[in-house]
Amino acid sequence: MKAGLELKKILKKEKISARQLALRVGVDQPYLCKVLNDQIKPSCDWLERVLKPLGYEIEFNKKRKGVIKL
Q: Residue 26 has what pLDDT?
């Protein structure tokens, strides 16, 4: 999973900028930008901290063999 790519999709869907998100959840903006650009991999705790105020959560799903995702 590319956390940055998924987080970018959420920001676009919620119409919120990286700066606004950083201010809203109290995270370091340069760190957030590195996550968004997939330069670093955040911890699950950090992701939960960022996603929860937006109404999102982390979910793990087992891949099934032979399933094509469209």
A: 93
Model pTM score: 0.79
Mark 23-49 as b/e (b = at least 16 C-beta within 10 Å): eeeebeeeebeebbeeeeebeeebbee
Chain CA centroid to CA 57, Å: 9
- Our CA angle for 15, 42, 6, nearest 5°, is 35
Task: Give the architecture-level CATH label for domain 3-54.
Answer: Orthogonal Bundle (1.10)
Judge whether residue 66 has pLDDT over 70.
Answer: no
